[in-house]
Amino acid sequence: MGSSSWLSFSLCLLLLCRMSQAQFGSSQESPFQSSRRSVSTRNECRIERLNALEPTRTVRSEAGMTDYFDEDNEQFRCAGVSAIRRVIEPRGLLLPSMSNAPRLVYIVQGRGIVGLVMPGCPETFQSFQRSERYEREEGGRHRRPRDEHQKVYQFEEGDVLAVPNGFAYWCYNNGENPVVAITVLDTSNDANQLDRSHRQFLLAGRQEEGRQRYRREESMKENILRGFSTESLAAAFGVNMELARKLQCRDDTRGEIVRVENGLQVLRPSRREEEEREESRSINGMEETYCSMKIKQNIEDPRRADVFNPRGGRITTLNSEKLPILRFIQMSAQRVVLYRNAMVSPHWNINAHSIMYCTGGRGRVEVADDKGESVFDGELHQGQLLIVPQNYAVLEWAESEGFQLVSIKTSDRAMVSSIVGKMSALRGMPEEVLMNSYRISRDEARRVKLTRGDEVAIFTPRRESRAEA
């Protein structure tokens, strides 16, 4: 009987493991594999010239504005992504919506709160109000729920927010300064089974269309409740016709970002409470479940840096090993902060496209393609975006005021191969290979391999190199 029981237990455990892998994806998947690319994107990366990009369309709302980059640009078509930048004024509420594509949101400036509604998960946040009858009869000891909702997160400058496709999402600026956020949407992800354009589905409000082709028409995008008859909507919600019409926002002209005059009053934990809960989970070895999954992490804090050069700067990488939800949306992020005249080692992205957005300063960027030709050699300054296709070699060099970048990548475990420096491609080759490859002497081969010593990824340029450039 003991052997039979053990066999039954083993079979059940195996079945559970299989089910878990089917639902959430195997954590043993090779980082070299990528399931996000649709076949249609593979013929659209024949780019002869890259350009620094800026938004081509701005849509203003009551309490902010949304800047759209042209997703029909060949660089966006190559990477299979779209990008938007939002500015939310103090007390501004980004109305609830969902998208056909997963996205990463980087907070360039400001702070606030964000809500992400996980389908099928309970409303675990409850605020209470006291019952007047119990106040009189029991001295106010009894309270009844006033509102129930899912978890609300605090965010601040440097946070990365992960939002899966089809999940309802809203955001509110409870700070004193505008919130500025850059969003990259992976429209070529397999999770998007519509076309490769970004489609935003509003749950409330009305918004002017953001795509360039609507500039002349000034078409309005209605929320999805507007598409139902008022009678059907009233029946579905169990409300009267007047309230059903209000839900359809027929005469709302505020746009997708509205002003909350008296401030938004919702139950939320303090940032300190959030940090303590995360530390407790880590110490206790608790694994994340679907409903408790963490959706954000800060990459601005220097203490989180993966590479640090006291004279050059720092690099912080955020992938699915650090933030598991990224495994499901197949995206990752990297923060690069370069000090004056410092540079990032020439490198290429092994398994991802890189969408680089300058958050501050200025820098020179050079990109080379598979033909060994320069496809970009120019300056990137604050507010500009540059897309570097997979395997294209890139070099970033800060100007006198420094250079700050955030890169969104189209793999949850994006890998980089440096060309020079410690743990680089050339450092890993025998001297004889370099001598015969470049027709150089052994001494020159050693200099090529070892001049940078133990420097990894970030270099402080030699003065003579900068002068000759």
UniProtKB/TrEMBL annotation:
Signal sequence coordinates = 1-22
* GO biological process, alphabetically ordered: seed development
Q: Which domain of life is it from?
A: Eukaryota
Q: Does the keyword Disulfide bond apply?
A: yes
Q: Which CDD domains match?
A: cupin_11S_legumin_C, cupin_11S_legumin_N
Could you list this entry's UniProt keywords, alphabetically sorted.
Disulfide bond, Seed storage protein, Signal, Storage protein
**InterPro entries in the record, alphabetically?**
11S_seedstore_pln (IPR006044), Cupin_1 (IPR006045), RmlC-like_jellyroll (IPR014710), RmlC_Cupin_sf (IPR011051), Seed_Storage-Functional (IPR050253)
Keyword Cytoplasm in record: no
Q: Give one Pfam family, short name only.
A: Cupin_1
Q: Cite the Cupin type-1 domain residue spans from the record.
A: 50-245, 297-446
Q: Name the family the entry cites.
A: Belongs to the 11S seed storage protein (globulins) family.
Q: Which PANTHER family match?
A: 12S SEED STORAGE PROTEIN CRB, OS03G0336100 PROTEIN-RELATED
Quaternary structure and interacting proteins, as annotated: Hexamer; each subunit is composed of an acidic and a basic chain derived from a single precursor and linked by a disulfide bond.
The name this protein carries in UniProt is Cocosin 1
Q: What is the lineage of its organism?
A: Eukaryota, Viridiplantae, Streptophyta, Embryophyta, Tracheophyta
Instruction: Tell me the name of the encoding gene.
Output: LOC109506436
